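Listing S7. Sequence submitted for prediction.
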Amino acid sequence: MPHVVTLFDVVSAPPDGDGTRNGTRDGAQGGTRGGPGARPGAGEQTFWFVMEYVPGGGLDRSPPVSPARAARVGAQLADALAALHEDGIVHCDVKPANVGLTRHGTAKLLDFGAAYRVGGIETITVNGPSSFTPDYAAPELARGNVPRPASDVFCLAATVHALVAGVPPRGGPPGEDAGPAGTADGGAETDRLRHWKAEQGVVELDAAVGPLRPVLTAMLHRDPRQRPDAAEAGRLLADVAGAGPEPSSPSPGTAGTVTGRGLRRRPLLAAALAVSTVVALGLIAVQDHGGDGTAASSPSRAARDRTAGATANGGTGALVGDPRTADVCALADPAALGQFGAGDVRVDVDYGNFDRCDVLVGVDDETRIDTSIRLLDGSPPEGSRPVRTVGRIGIREEQADRDECTRLLTSGGDTARVEVRVNMGKGSVVGGSSTLCTVADKAAASAAQVLDRGPVPRRSPAYPRTSLAWADACALLDAEALSAVPGLKVDVPEVGVAKWRCKWSSDVDELNATIAFFRDQPRSAVGGATSRTLSGYRTVVGPDDADTCSAFVEYRRYSGQDGGTAAEMVRLDATGGRPMDQLCTMATGLATATAASLRAR
């Protein structure tokens, strides 16, 4: 990981009776503070972390920098956090004192003594009480809740603010003089005030942050579900950095200079960290993702979406943000739909494309209502007007069918939309559009209340880097591959959200070809379907409707909802006025090309 201090080795040693090892004093130069209780005592095994030498130490004593420079540092740290979060590590104590710069000005995240492991990650120690610095801590950390990746995003925003303004966004002395939680620095009264501000999520942005204000406001949201994740925060910070001047690279003779204190130089082995088994971090669990031994960059960073700007508290902004990090299921409220069922209401998070989330309402043994919440691109239909509003969110009605009812959620001139579509599940007894529209109204109102507080909440954790969520479905088929379907207009596809779906049309026999990502239980070869292996990927091909043959290329399996097996697939549809065997030949040709493209990724 290029922006995380490198761990070279871990050396363990049996404890001495007084908690020291081989005469080395506790707190030797180069040790990193691990929070309250970090110092090993008698009878506790000691671990020494041999780590990369970062010559400048922390940034807590550095003078204020420009917003663009702080944004560059923040973007690099966000990249580090995104990789750590994917591996189940929450740092918990991101602050200027825990950020160092290499001789070339590259930011490095330091001091993992307070880190917390989530998601069942196995490491050499168990999680202890979380440690944090109140002036930089997210409110959920200060209240004693379990740390989450979104907590690091808050701390990162507070750190970026301090790099520009010299103080964190909730005030306090410059630098890190206040100390971590649990210390008495600053007096008991001051300490209580700092903790109260931290618990309440009190923030006040300094005017010096300038163009960083909207990004920091979103990252400092009191509700962790409303914050962007680390990957999106990195993109937003990189956008601010890109608008500012490039700083000159520090010379080797001045890299890491600490104002007023001179250069803090330490030999490599002096950077070894002595920690007890209580706080020894699971850095052992952090793995490289790049084939060259370095961390792979965030898949979404290569395709920045400048319309993904997060929304300031109570302000306006993109309704959806970056769809790759959006948690569509955060718009679903099963409790609001409970009145329509017999208690069997559940959210299905592993069905369909990444742009949707379903709520299944069991009315009785024979009837089920399916509510689908989807992200859409493009302006609402002409002439359509909101029939009601929830804050700044307008709710529009679409023409209702007997077995379906749809509502559209929009915000001002924003071209992004959220669709709430309600229909009767397959095999259900049709109950008429009036009931369905009542459900749609309830579901739309609940989703609008969430959207009125800001853009669609971010996923936590984010999709893994191996997920198709980071891929471009449209790019998996080129003109040669699309020639499997006669007459397709390959240059004018209908493109879906985040390029997770593409559809091409033909003037020949009303033929269409569609490629889309799809999640569900692994497909079975039933109902006339056949199974085969294409370029190493299990593929099921068969009729889907009277005029459609579908191929499902299984890309990867994962542990889905309730521990069940789910799969990410690429779905290829060949539709039109041709016999089914010809349509399935076309679908197989599309699937063959898709599987080859997946193998080449």
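Caption to Listing S7: primary sequence and predicted structure tokens for the chain studied. Residues 531 and 540 are 4 Å apart (CA to CA). The first strand starts at residue 7 and ends at 13.
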